[in-house]
Amino acid sequence: MPDPRLANVDEGLQPERTLLAWRRTILAMVVCSCFFLRWVPHHRWLAVTPAVLCLLAAGAAWLRLRRSYLRNVSGLQAETIASGIAVNLLLAVCVTALCAVELAAILAW
User: Fold this and answer.
1) Which residues contact 11 (CB under 8 A, 6 or more apart)?
2) Which of 24, 34, 46, 50 is 20 to 30 A from 9 (CA-CA)?
3) How far are the Cα atoms of 1, 63, 91 from residue 5, in angstroms, in the given order?
4) How many CB atoms lie within 10 A of CB 7?
């Protein structure tokens, strides 16, 4: 049962939309790691490394998601929301690194 103190009073449901967007991003990262695993027969450990990194980044984002959601709902109630950029920066760095690894693998073979 949801905590009544954390009932969302935002008519626009901003925390829920943000939560769904992050879940889609995490799902996309898991799918991306599955694509890297398709390369295992050809590239061996070079394909496993970005897949594991992608899964670890998705897991870290998932763990921070709940805490961020609770903070945002509480902030909406108190009308003070602190902006956090840690997860956004983590995902941006991971996506950039994965693109670099993929380009290197394509150019090398």
Assistant:
1) none
2) 24
3) 12, 22, 31
4) 9
